[in-house]
Design goal:
With 258 residues, this protein is an alpha/beta fold. Helices cover 40% and strands 16% of the residues. Bound molecules: phosphoenolpyruvate. Phosphoenolpyruvate binds next to strand 8.
């Protein structure tokens, strides 16, 4: 695999944090960090709560920061109280969406099947998808990490065309490493990202696999980003906690330039 063929994507997942005013403040702080620096080595994305999308897009205008949502519903419209459709997101100019985050799977009944429905709806609407997969601690201890992420990836991508794969980023996020301060070792991250890449190769082709960005997510921070991002199969990061602090997020962006 040739990592040089893929652009790194460093994406922040703000989760349920930041009011609109606080969100604008954080975007301005990130902009100040990247001002005058060469950040062309990675795509920078911030995925934010729905109410922050418009103010964050306004604040990010003229900067390299792209904006994403944290979830999307699979129906085009209808009686789904509290939900947001893909066309609502594209109508306001949103480019990215996270789908299948483990917190959605754990707390909101997300399944591989609904992840697949959301992925197809988002891609059909023209969104770029950050598709999350990852094993629980129990699954890792049972020795079924590879099987778990392979199955999640296969089901999520059912019916997704080769052309649409250009808009799919896969985030390998071991559930036991999210928000826990426990990071997968760089070798563990590299190994599982490679497993996912092989699944993409089997489903599509080695050319598609080689072109697909596969991120690692799980307690990535200013200190460990260099080592994780240095691995051949790790093409970026999905970052929770550290994306809420502009200097830390910038340190990860900067690690992705190497
Ligand atoms: C995440 O929310 O996707 C994540 C990786 O969180 P954290 O970086 O805080 O572990």
């Amino acid at each position: 695999m040739n990592k040089a063929t893929r652009k790194a994507v460093i994406a922040g997942n703000w989760k349920m944090n930041k009011t609109p005013a606080e969100a604008v403040e954080l975007i301005n702080a990130i902009k100040a960090e990247i001002e005058g620096k060469d950040v062309s080595g990675c795509e920078i994305v911030t995925c934010v709560p729905y109410v922050d999308l418009v103010p964050v897009m306004e604040a990010a205008k003229g900067s390299p920061i792209k904006v994403g949502a944290e979830n999307v519903h699979f129906a085009a419209s209808g009686a789904y109280t509290g939900e947001i459709s893909a066309s609502m997101l594209t109508a306001i100019g949103v480019e990215y969406v996270i789908i299948g985050h483990s917190e959605r799977r754990q707390y909101f009944g997300e399944t591989d099947v609904t992840v697949n429905l959301r992925t197809k709806a988002a891609l059909e609407a023209g969104l770029k998808v950050i598709l999350c997969v990852g094993e629980t601690l129990e699954q890792r201890e049972q020795g079924i990490t590879d099987e778990t992420v392979s199955l999640q990836t296969k089901v999520a991508l059912l019916g997704v065309t080769e052309e649409q794969m250009k808009n799919v980023i896969i985030a390998y996020e071991p559930v036991w490493a999210i928000g826990t301060g426990k990071t997968a070792t760089s070798d563990q991250a590299d190994e599982v990202c490679d497993v996912i890449r092989n699944v993409v190769a089997a489903l599509y082709s080695s050319a598609v696999a080689e072109a697909t960005t596969i991120q690692y997510g799980g307690s990535m921070n200013a200190k460990n980003a260099d080592e994780l991002l240095g691995k051949v199969n790790v093409d970026g990061g999905l970052i929770g906690g550290a994306s809420l602090k502009a200097p830390d997020f910038y340190a990860i962006i900067s690690a992705a330039q190497k």
